[in-house]
């Protein structure tokens, strides 16, 4: 444990992760513009987000190996170079397929940044100060969502969406230059070997599940490519888990789930990710496609929520150090459930400031859950398990977010199609179908908006139920005490490990 944390190096890590996260949040507002330029449906456009998370889901399980095998310096510089190459490729992508490929190249680099940053912080700060440290981490990370949508909205309104990548590129290059001169290794390295069969199994497992769920909106759940890839993915994932449990030096150690609070934290994070990622995609769709609000004002609408998350992050970090995760998580998820329900009751003329308020309060609720729950779970792990714990958390968050987004977008699409058909039949039965071509086009546009609204509302209702599940689970959270309180009676390290499940509400 370092007596004085390496703040300079952590700052470079923060900046690299910030650039990667900003890149991701910039794209959410731009999705409708990209859909228009390349003539793709929402279920196809989501691959810009899902494909990014898919690669994260494949790469992050191997991050525990990379962090133990290679130095911080080599790993971070390599990750930033891959991210920079992907950014450059996205600027010049001539079609939608190559744009998705460029995004996936970006993801191959960014996937390693978050686990690397979290491992450095776990090694640099004592356990009783991790809440505050993670809170500062959250403040930096939530600045990107605060800037991203608004900046993206203004750019998309005045320039091409490609400008989003042009802005990111110089910052990525600057990060590489700083890392070349200032980066050093602080986490321990050891000789580990990568089991390539495990890597293949995890890639097929996570990739199959993500592809299957993501394709359902386009192909339908009864399509062989959909249920076939889901089945193959599930079987591969089970085989991967069984293999890891049998290995002496696994690629991803599932034995960390013997620690109950880490297991519970993972379960809550999975459920919360599904609800959170869906909101980040559905809200811009409603604002721009149903309400016809400009991309810039769409970004402004989401700005206060992101600012609130940034402000609250260090505050919740300090509250976590003092009171633990349970009270914070229950309060935050109760707020999230109520506000998500209100988002399921939108109309075609819901007020702009009303929507801004609901979205902001929802983000306020989520700011009280994510970091405290994750930190509480990691606090229960022994130091040597930190690379596996951070890799597991990041993997599950990305994969569950991707599957949740795909699932809820599929729910939206299917509900939209059903509602559109019913509205058209009702209009025909009532003899309200116009004969003038202009009037027909206007009516089709209005029916399309009404159908999309119904689909979005239904998806938010499903997200409400998902958030309720997370809320119920938080009642079982117990506070993990820092080891220093357990060593006061000269307890041995073995006894410390046995007692790590001891809790205090």
Automatic annotation (TrEMBL):
Cite the Pfam families for this sequence. MFS_1
The cellular location(s) given in this protein's UniProt record come to: Cell membrane
SUPFAM superfamilies, per database record:
MFS general substrate transporter
PROSITE patterns from the UniProt entry: MFS (PS50850)
Similarity remark: Belongs to the major facilitator superfamily. EmrB family.
Task: Report how it sits in the membrane.
Answer: Multi-pass membrane protein
Name it: DHA2 family efflux MFS transporter permease subunit
Q: Which InterPro entries match?
A: EmrB-like, MFS, MFS_dom, MFS_trans_sf
Principal location class: membrane
Keywords assigned by UniProt? Cell membrane, Membrane, Transmembrane, Transmembrane helix, Transport
Residues that span the membrane, as ranges: 12-35, 47-67, 79-101, 107-127, 134-155, 161-181, 193-213, 225-242, 262-287, 299-320, 327-346, 352-374, 456-477
**Origin species:** Sporosarcina contaminans
Gene3D superfamilies, alphabetized: MFS general substrate transporter like domains, Multidrug resistance protein D
* Domain Major facilitator superfamily (MFS) profile: start-end pairs: 9-482
């Amino acid at each position: 444990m370092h007596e004085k944390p390496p703040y300079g190096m952590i700052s470079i890590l923060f900046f690299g992760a910030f650039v990667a996260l900003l890149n991701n949040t910039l794209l959410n507002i731009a999705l409708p513009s990209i859909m228009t330029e390349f003539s793709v449906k929402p279920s196809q456009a989501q691959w810009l987000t899902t494909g990014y998370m898919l690669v994260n889901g494949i790469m992050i399980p191997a991050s525990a190996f990379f962090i133990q095998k290679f130095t911080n310096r080599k790993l971070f510089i390599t990750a930033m170079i891959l991210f920079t190459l992907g950014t450059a490729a996205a600027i010049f992508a001539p079609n939608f397929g190559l744009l998705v490929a460029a995004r996936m190249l970006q993801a191959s680099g960014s996937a390693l940044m978050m686990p690397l940053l979290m491992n450095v912080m776990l090694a640099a700060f004592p356990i009783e100060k991790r809440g505050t440290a993670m809170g500062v981490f959250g403040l930096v990370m939530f600045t990107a969502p605060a800037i991203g949508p608004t900046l993206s909205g203004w750019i998309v309104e005045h320039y091409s969406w490609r400008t989003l990548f042009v802005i990111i590129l110089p910052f990525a290059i600057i990060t590489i230059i700083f890392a070349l001169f200032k980066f050093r290794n602080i986490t321990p390295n050891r000789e580990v070997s990568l089991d390539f069969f495990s890597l293949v199994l995890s890639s097929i497992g996570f990739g199959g599940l993500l592809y299957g769920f993501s394709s359902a909106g386009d192909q339908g759940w009864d399509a062989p490519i959909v249920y076939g890839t889901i089945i193959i993915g599930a079987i591969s994932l089970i085989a991967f888990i069984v293999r890891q449990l049998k290995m002496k030096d696994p690629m991803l150690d599932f034995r960390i789930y013997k620690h109950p609070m880490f297991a519970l934290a993972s379960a809550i994070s999975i459920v919360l990710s599904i609800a959170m990622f869906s909101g980040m995609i559905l809200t811009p769709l409603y604002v721009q496609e149903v309400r016809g609000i400009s991309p810039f004002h769409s970004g402004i609408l989401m700005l206060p929520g992101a600012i609130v998350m940034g402000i609250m992050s260090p505050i919740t970090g300090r509250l976590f150090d003092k009171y633990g995760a349970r009270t914070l998580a229950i309060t935050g998820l109760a707020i999230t459930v109520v506000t998500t329900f209100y988002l399921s009751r939108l109309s075609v003329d819901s007020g702009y400031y009303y929507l801004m308020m609901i979205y902001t309060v929802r983000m306020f609720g989520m700011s009280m859950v994510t970091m405290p729950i994750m930190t509480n779970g990691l606090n229960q792990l022994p130091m040597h398990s930190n690379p596996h714990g951070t890799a597991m958390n990041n993997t599950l968050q990305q994969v569950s977010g991707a599957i949740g987004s795909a699932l809820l977008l599929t729910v939206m699409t299917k509900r939209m199609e059903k509602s559109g058909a019913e509205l058209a039949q009702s209009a025909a039965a009532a003899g309200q179908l116009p004969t003038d071509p202009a009037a027909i086009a206007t009516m089709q546009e209005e029916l399309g908006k009404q159908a999309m609204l119904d689909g979005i509302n239904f998806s938010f209702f499903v997200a409400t139920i998902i958030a309720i599940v997370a809320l119920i689970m938080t009642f079982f959270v117990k506070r993990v005490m820092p080891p220093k309180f357990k060593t006061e009676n000269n307890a041995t390290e073995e006894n410390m490990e046995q007692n790590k499940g001891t809790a205090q509400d």
